Amino acid sequence: MAHTDPTDIGTELISPVSPYAIVLFGASGDLARRKLLPGLYHLARAGLLPDYRIVGTSLDPLDTAGFRAVARAALDEFARSPVTEEAWDAFAANLSFVSQQDGAEGLAKAVADVESTFAAAPRRLHYLSVPPAAALEVVAMLAEADLVDRSRIIMEKPFGTDLPSARRLNAALHETFDEAQIFRIDHFLGKEAALNILAFRFANGLFEPIWNREHIDHIQIDVPETLSLGTRTAFYERTGAYRDMVVTHLLQILAFVAMEPPTALEPRAITEEKNKVFRSMLPIQPADVVRGQYTGYLDEPGVAPHSETETFIALRCLIDNWRWAGVPFFLRTGKRLAEGARIISIAFREPPRSMFPAGSGVGAHGPDHLTFDLADASKLSLSFYGKRPGPGMRLDKLSLQFEISETSDVLEAYERLIHDAMCGDHTLFTTSDGIEQLWERSVPLLTNPPPVRPYAPGSWGPNAIHQLIAPYAWRLPFERPWRKMP
Ligand code: BG6
After folding, report:
1. Is any ligand 1 atom within 6 A of the Cβ of residue 225?
2. Where are the beta strands (DSSP E) in 271-414?
3. Disulfide check for 187: which of 39, 337, 413, 424 has CB 3.0–4.6 Å away?
4. DSSP 127-192
5. Residue 412: CB within 6 Å of ligand 1?
6. pLDDT tens across 128-165, in order?
7. Could you tell me if 344 and 374 are in contact, meaning their C-beta atoms sit under 8 angstroms apart?
8. pTM for the predicted model, two decimal places
9. Which protein residue's CA is at the shortest distance from atom 6 of ligand 1?
């Protein structure tokens, strides 16, 4: 087990950002309360945001005092370390609010007011934590308020809902912002464990030589969730599991798993390799997809009586290039499933087993697997057959397991990505080109989606998932659970 020092905030290698005026749209919304305000607080406390002001804005009828109260309640509930009065006072002094109903003029004035308190004109970060339909209105407001100069903008997914809407969104964005100013956030890519895939693959000589169709049989990326939709049905009804989770998180992780070694660990090289993976992906066919909806979804507030929105999706996709031709990638995610997990599982090809006597147990527990657990305390396991001690030749499945614990004090995914965006580093962000590629590969599925099949809450999805993956089997639930580390 690898321990990191829990008192080490893990930020000594990260440089503080230059002075910033941050405009937070959707400042009293769910994401702002859970992640963005606590994340900005933590960045400030860690010394990574030495000179900043935050202008919150939303449609809620708040003023600065009201916004500070929202922020304090959010920190008390969601900050990753207890909030000290001293740190809170410093943070609160940098918070102000303007109602979005005050329009471009009100916004321009609020930003000018905070900017006058900096020694020199600061950079600007506009964080759009707003529903997709509202994003372009906000962009227009920023243009009208003359807040485009010196600025970077973080956008939340979904980046369109299909190819035409993604193209329209990108074209409209590019009328106001250059691509270099735009950061499309995918918080899965900010997770330590996701980045560790790159380190694991490209910093070691052990696995990369066998990371291809000659040695790998199939791959699973499995992200079941136990949570239901709660207050998010309005958003989800228009989105569904494919757009909410697959196009963003799962396929982005797939790109890390499947890409060629980039020429350097820098944005252009990584983006180029990721986009090559998307270009090689065969269009996703309806016959390779299982859509599901948990029973009870239709009774939730805000859900249309005959809604066909999927709360579950499993699919098979192929990357048709030299490295991966013929190796199926199985993806699964959904709400109200039996367990919450984030697993990448690589199944290796099996050797000829003719030398082992019948009944020895070789192959009885599936192929050798390399498994990444992308949980916050990330884990890695390599399973293989070994001899059971004693007479004769009986084989058992064994595993080497590795766990990185105590990661809670390094930067959380949103913190890392906000910091990267403020530094202008695009490495972990998606480009307009990459997103459009993915929507293009999604055309057959979106044009002709298979019917949604019901599944029981607490299950692993509709029964059809077993046919989808046959002759293989889903790794989850694990036959042998992770060992508890001492
Ligand atoms: C979000 C999705 O992007 O990711 C949610 O909109 C999902 O539906 C969430 O629950 C999962 O993220 P995490 O980091 O909690 O696994």
Report:
1. yes
2. 289-294, 312-318, 328-334, 343-348, 369-373, 379-387, 395-405
3. 413
4. EE-S-HHHHHHHHHHHHHTT--TTEEEEEPSPS-SSHHHHHHHHHHHHHHS-GGGEEE--GGGGSH
5. no
6. 999 888 999 999 999 999 999 999 999 998 899 999 99
7. yes
8. 0.92
9. 244
